[in-house]
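#struct-help
A.M.: can someone run this one for me? Single chain, 207 residues.
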Amino acid sequence: MTRLPPIGEGDLLLVIDLQNDFCAGGALAVAGADELVPTINRLAEGFAHVALTQDWHPPGHRSFAASHPGRRPFETVRLAYGEQTLWPEHCVQGTPGAEFHPELAIPQAELILRKGYRAEVDSYSAFHENDRCTPTGLAGYLRERGLRRLFLAGLATDYCVHYTALDARLAGFETVVLLDACRAIDRDGSLAAALEAMRAAGVEILG
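D.P.: on it. Structure tokens below:
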């Protein structure tokens, strides 16, 4: 694991979407996701402040391919807010797939932020829905708590980690992506593009 800089009271570890449906056997499994769990558990022990995000879709969410007759997962459609990748049904509210990985052990987490619960719009970023104008409230929470630097870990590097990192920078937070504690979907060069975009935005990539 990459050596971290000194961690202080203004730092937060944000663990993104480490849920069953993104792990082995899940509806949208990310290769290597399960091996992150012990790494992230250890990381969390070194932070005074930890928060988790949780994909939390209602049945029939518009981002599901099944909601678009004739369409298949990973195709792209245009919705009211722009282009949307279609996904297999995953992280449906109240299902086992939406639960955190059973070996994730971070009882000290101070916040669980649920996202993607609006049926008509997807949410990759922990800061905004994909319409880019509906905030989740995370920025305000962090500012009120005096948290200034975010360390990101989890899933997936090229989607929810990527968009969360970009929005964190736009909101004025120092942002560090712990690459060794993330895993990517990496379709059609998406990982390389995400890393380039994060670096261009001033995100620090460790690992």
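A.M.: thanks! Strands lie at 11-16, 50-55, 76-79, 82-85, 111-115, 149-155, 174-183, 204-206.
D.P.: also worth noting: The chain has one domain: 11-58+89-206.
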